[in-house]
Design a protein that fits this description.
Chain lengths: 358, 315, 320
């Protein structure tokens, strides 16, 4: 942990549990990406509203981290903060460090270099995120040509090669086509290819398959995951689909109302999620089968960060809620090899374990 | 693209033919038939009237005359002025160059200042934008004849920088004489173009693909040029086409205000003299300019936006 | 006919503000029309009063000449000075408002009378009727109104009547296209089907329901058309093709090139300024009536409404 993390209240710093620390910060010494106490407030007519509230995360080089949550939980805002692509008037607290460098302190040229070689972003809707008036070739090569002075011919050859890698047939012909001549799945492959071409150290994938047909989702995710691994790129994979995140990522962070409520190895999360919200997302689990009927669907609706009271943001929808949950904000603390933000997590799980063994 | 071109060309020819029928027909069905213009207040003998009618082919049925006129027009023969006896083609030809130059000069002003003001307003929200908005709101309501009198009173009468009327002799004089008329023509169009440019740019600035370009680390000017401006162009190009055609209509007023010897002034003079062959030719020419500008703007739009190329859009 | 000119200026009559609470009419006015809209309305109302009560308000006879006062500067006798043949400029401006407003009022009324039925027919029956009407509109649209008016003058000789007639035709598509689009939207909405199922007649539905609902849009567009018609007619009068010289009309007054060349700008520019102010007010008010908000304001509001939709549901969610 670097000196940038705020004070002693940071649960990641004062952790007595070695495994928890390892989970939060993988053994590799220098993290690729490190968010600490990241808070973002967006400007509204009368002041500002928080959309992110103290996000702590870190990612090792080459690691894939899933960021899971319902819409409005702040997943997209988190990666936007990482690329400094926030709406005008946004206030940012806390730090975003990429390879130790403070992203929010970067100058114009530094920021451009970071966006060029450091991170690459894959957006949810490729149709909207690729300029419709320019050819696929222009879209793929422009960053190489503009940012790195690559020759047009060479850039196009490389673009064609990467298009072939993401599974697009007759790539040379595609380079001459316009976005409206390609299907959504094709376009998303083009978007992935554009990111791979820049060879960034970190890929931010913001629900890359949500807008696609269910039948091609798996294929596109598979291509993205394979090519990323081959190139040793790190990835933050945003999705509202917990199973998808578990399939693609080694570690998963669950977000709720602008906060991270649980971080755990994908394997572990699958078997024993701890936070009531994660449990809700996973549906009924064997260990708590007597409560299955309540957890099948999470009652109520998701709230945003600025809407949550002083206590736990999930309190209003939680089956285990106690007065303390509404009054005092729980911290992200180690629990069974992961990190969980819940006052009653130990209580709930010990009781369930007893019930299970009884 | 080819289909779109054909489609537009077809519409263009149809509109021109229909307007020529309307113009030709209405002028010859008018009360105060053409030969009365020649006789003025004199009451002609029946024989003299018949002779004149025969000479002007007025004794033939209207469709025949229309056909004669149309085939003549296609061969460059627009008939002869009933007032001066000159060939209409030569009268119109001499004015056409001046009018085209005037419209071109005005269009340069419109594009430079309209686009410039719109771009500044779009990229500088807040005070600059509000000021530009106020400026354009007023400028679109200043009619060319009011702008003309304003410009004459300041730059011709008060300061004496430019002539108040006429275009003198020689090309330099012509250019100097056209400066104020071009400005007077440009005022309204500048305002409209600035607004359309601003709104179109604002819309593009908020588009997702601009974020993609930004997040790839492209320099700001590249993002603005290749993604924002380029994509904002279609409505701007349409507007330029429409505004140019509007300028042709406004030359009627401005050329009269500054006594510019173009086809606008020729129209007004011929109308006052009831010189029907000239009115016909000039009116049709203005309609043609109007329609061609509109069609060109559609084609230019298709060149910019590839999605429009494939299908023949609705006219 | 001048009543139509009054309509945009008389906000009480607009359907956007149903008389539910008459408690703070001023605040409601401000909400509906904004400060600029209210100012525009007040100005137009003032001009209308000038036009109607010209003989009472004008300080002098607009046509009384006095060579002694040729190009007299502003004084107590002539508040805005006098023109080349000593006519009182203020009085000519006051009387000039009559022809300057009457022409556009006629143009807009005639265009509406022709355009609304055509547009409603096209919207209601669709198909061939719609296509035919659209083609005719396209053709008329291809002819600039000013040129059409000039041709009409060539046919019938100069005067307000041929100019107004030609412009009325030219403005039909401008108004009818908007009416058709708005009516079509209404036509396709479920309530119209419901009315039709209940057995109400076409005329009753279109007049009592559709027309009533699209009234703000039509009125707004009419106000804007009024402004453009005012410009076109003033241009024609300036060219000597519409209102004829001794009559005091703003367009005619601007054409006083003798005053202009001698450096007397007041007789020429004062009517010009009035024309610009009238058209500016009409466009501002027209946009307001049809429910548009000025750009910058719109952007702020859009964000605000987006947020405020989440807010009430918050409290609901918290209470649940």
């Amino acid at each position: 942990m670097t000196s940038s993390s705020p004070g002693g209240s940071d649960p990641l710093r004062a952790t007595p549990d070695g495994t928890a620390a390892a989970t939060a910060h993988p053994a590799t010494a220098a993290p690729l990406l490190e968010l600490s106490g990241l808070t973002v407030r967006l400007a509204v007519e009368d002041g500002s509203r928080a959309v992110l509230d103290g996000i702590d995360l870190s990612l090792a080089p080459g690691e894939a981290l899933g960021l899971v949550g319902e819409s409005g939980s702040g997943k997209s805002m988190t990666v936007r903060a990482v690329t400094r692509l926030l709406p005008g008037g946004a206030e940012v607290d806390g730090t975003v460090r990429f390879e130790g460098q403070d992203v929010n302190a970067m100058s114009g040229p530094e920021l451009r270099a970071y966006r060029d070689r450091g991170v690459g972003m894959i957006f949810q809707d490729p149709r909207a995120h690729i300029n419709p008036t320019r050819r696929i070739g222009a879209f793929l090569t422009e960053a190489l040509i503009r940012n790195r002075g690559t020759g047009r011919r060479e850039a196009e050859a490389r673009a064609a090669a990467v298009l072939a890698e993401v599974g697009i047939d007759s790539p040379e012909r595609r380079l001459r086509q316009y976005p409206h001549e390609l299907s959504g799945g094709m376009l998303q492959r083009v978007m992935i290819a554009s990111v791979l071409l820049a060879e960034p150290r970190l890929i931010l994938a913001d629900e890359p398959t949500t807008a696609l047909d269910v039948t091609i989702q798996a294929e596109v995710v598979g291509i993205l995951d394979r090519l990323r691994r081959e190139r040793g790129m790190g990835m933050v994979f945003i999705t509202h689909d917990l199973d998808l995140a578990l399939a693609v990522c080694r570690r998963v962070a669950v977000m709720y109302a602008g906060r991270i409520v649980e971080v755990r190895e994908a394997e572990e999360l699958h078997r024993r999620a701890a936070h009531p919200y994660t449990l809700g997302l996973l549906g009924s689990r064997p260990s708590i089968d007597e409560r299955a009927d309540r957890l099948d669907a999470i009652p109520g609706r998701p709230v945003s960060a600025f809407e949550s009271g002083p206590g736990c943001a999930f309190a209003d929808r939680c089956a285990h809620v106690q007065p303390v949950c509404r009054e005092e904000r729980p911290e992200l603390e180690p629990f069974q090899g992961g990190l969980v933000r819940c006052h009653r997590v130990a209580e709930i799980h010990s009781r369930q374990d007893q019930e299970a063994s009884a | 693209m080819g289909r779109l071109l054909l489609h537009r060309l077809g519409g263009l020819v149809t509109t021109l033919l229909l307007s020529s029928v309307v113009i030709f027909g209405s002028l010859y069905l008018a009360p105060g038939s053409p030969e009365n213009v020649l006789f003025g207040s004199r009451a002609p003998s029946a024989a003299a009237r018949a002779a004149v009618r025969h000479q002007l082919h007025l004794d033939q049925p209207l469709p025949v005359r229309y056909w004669d006129w149309l085939t003549g027009a296609l061969h460059g023969d627009l008939g002869h002025s009933m007032v001066t006896g000159q060939s209409v083609a030569s009268r119109v030809g001499s004015g056409l160059g001046t009018t085209l130059l005037l419209v071109a000069m005005s269009m340069v002003l419109v594009i430079v200042f309209g686009l410039g003001l719109g771009a500044v307003a779009a990229l500088r929200p807040g005070r600059v934008d509000a000021a530009a908005n106020a400026l354009t709101s007023v400028s679109v309501t200043i009619p060319p004849f009011v702008a003309s009198t304003l410009l004459i009173s300041v730059f011709a009468v008060r300061l004496g920088w430019f002539p108040a009327s006429g275009t003198g002799t020689g090309f330099a004089d012509l250019l100097r004489g056209l400066v104020l008329p071009a400005c007077a023509l440009a005022v309204v169009s500048c305002g409209f173009l600035a607004r359309i440019t601003r709104n179109s740019l604002r819309e593009q600035l908020e588009r997702e693909h601009v974020q993609t370009a930004l997040v790839r680390g492209l320099p700001r000017w590249v993002v603005l040029r290749d993604h924002v401006f380029r994509n904002a162009m279609p409505p701007v190009v349409t507007a330029i086409g429409l505004l140019t055609s509007g300028l042709f209509a406004s030359t009627l007023v401005v050329e009269s205000a500054f006594a510019v010897p173009g086809i606008g002034q020729l129209t007004i003079q011929s109308v006052a003299q009831k010189d029907f062959p000239v009115v016909q030719a000039v009116a049709l020419l203005l309609v043609a300019a109007f329609v061609i500008c509109n069609a060109l703007s559609d084609l230019a739009q298709a060149l910019i936006d590839p999605r429009l190329r494939t299908a023949g859009r609705t006219a | 006919m001048t009543t139509l000119a009054a309509a945009p200026g008389a906000p009480a009559g607009t359907p956007t503000a149903p008389g539910r609470t008459a408690r703070a009419p001023l605040a409601r006015l401000r909400r509906t029309f904004g400060i600029s809209g209210i100012l525009a309305g007040v100005f137009l109302l003032a001009v209308l009063v000038l036009a109607v009560a010209a003989p009472l308000l004008a300080p002098a006879d607009p046509n009384a000449q006095s060579l002694l006062d040729s190009y007299a500067g502003p004084s107590s006798a002539h508040l805005l000075g006098a023109d080349g043949i000593g006519r009182d400029i203020l009085s000519r401006l006051v009387f000039g408002s009559r022809t300057s407003l009457l022409g556009p009022a006629l143009v807009v009324s005639i265009s509406l009378l022709v355009g609304i039925p055509l547009a409603l027919l096209a919207a209601w029956y669709g198909g061939l009727v719609d296509a035919t009407v659209a083609r005719v509109f396209d053709l008329v649209y291809a002819l600039p109104g000013l040129l059409l008016a000039v041709l009409a003058v060539a046919l019938f000789g100069p005067g307000l009547t041929p100019a107004v007639a030609a412009l009325s035709i030219a403005y039909v598509p401008f108004l009818a296209r908007i009416v058709r689009a708005a009516a079509l939207q209404q036509r396709n909405s479920p309530y119209v089907d419901a009315l039709a199922v209940q057995g109400f007649g076409v005329v009753r539905i279109t007049v009592r329901h559709i027309l009533r609902n699209i009234a703000p849009v039509v009125l707004g567009q009419a106000a804007i058309a009024f402004g453009y018609a005012l410009l076109d007619l003033a241009s024609l009068s300036y060219l000597g093709l519409a209102v004829q010289a001794p009559t005091s009309d703003w367009g005619v007054m601007v054409s006083d090139s003798d005053a202009l060349m001698k450096g007397y700008w007041l007789p020429v520019l004062a009517p010009g300024v009035l024309i610009v102010l009238c058209v500016l007010s009409l466009t501002v008010l027209g946009a307001r009536i049809s429910g548009e908000r000025p750009q910058s304001y719109l952007r702020l509001r859009r964000g605000a409404t987006k947020r405020s939709t989440t807010k009430p549901s918050t409290t609901k969610g918290a209470g649940a």
